[in-house]
Write a structure and sequence with these properties.
Blueprint lengths: L14 H14 L11 H8 L3 H13 L3 E4 L3 E4 L4 H25 L2 H17 L7 H17 L3 H22 L4 H17 L3 H30 L2
Antiparallel strand pairs: 1-2
Length: 230
């Protein structure tokens, strides 16, 4: 994401939320890397708003687990270690399996079609040299439709928090050799199970997808730990 895409040209009453959305999107799409300092002055220049707006947005993102405040450094993009990632994926598998099962039971034909369109968008982005914002955006859309179609607001809220945190790893894990094709196949199986209105199959497909993603994430984090101490 370039600096121009971060600019806000107007000052509406929803300014605070707009700033939050700009920063959240920039972080989750890799504009700011895990562990990178978020300097208020620089963010003010990038987005074109006051320090007050930036501080309010950073507080919200800290509450979501995307930003951490570190002593002597201030706000930084959150870093996920291996143990936290293991716990995140374990809880996500439980919740997302349930979401898939409930989606298969409750979703409308229009929602199933929307889910299928999200899968097609992911597939369309494969073949490019890098896995970038379009792919991440398409996957986020897929998960958002899945969560909404579960008809459970608590599942949706909890999974949104987990997805925001895990998204910090997604660009790295999706760029691992072969992972994008594996992920597409897994997501395609979720879509097919839901289209068949098979709750148990959908639940199993969701859990397998998360477990596969967890294995890749653990491998990446292990390698990073080894490099850090080498």
């Amino acid at each position: 994401m370039d600096d121009q895409n971060l600019q806000i040209t107007s000052q509406p009453t929803t300014l605070r939320r707009m700033v939050e959305d700009r920063l959240r999107t920039a972080i989750l799409r890799g504009r700011f890397q895990p562990g990178q300092r978020l300097v208020e002055r620089e963010l003010c220049e990038l987005i074109g708003v006051s320090r007050t707006s930036i501080r309010e947005a950073l507080r919200q993102l800290e509450a979501e687990g995307i930003v951490d405040t570190v002593s002597q450094r201030g706000p930084v993009v959150a870093v996920i270690d291996m143990e936290e990632a293991r716990q995140l994926y374990a809880v996500r598998a439980l919740l997302e399996g349930y979401a898939g099962k409930e989606f298969a039971r409750n979703a409308t034909d229009a929602e199933v079609e929307e889910l299928s369109e999200a899968v097609d968008a992911i597939k369309a982005d494969i073949g490019k040299d890098d896995i970038g914002p379009n792919m991440i955006g398409a996957k986020s859309r897929f998960y958002a439709v899945l969560m909404r179609g579960s008809r459970n607001i608590f599942i949706e809220k909890l999974l949104t928090i987990l997805h925001n945190r895990i998204m910090l790893l997604r660009l790295t894990t999706m760029n691992q050799p072969g992972r994008v094709h594996e992920s597409l196949a897994e997501i395609g199986e979720i879509r097919d199970a839901i289209a068949a209105r098979d709750p148990e199959r959908a639940e199993r497909a969701c859990i397998r997808h998360i477990e596969s993603a967890s294995i890749v994430a653990m491998r990446v984090l292990q390698k990073q730990e080894e490099q850090k101490h080498s």
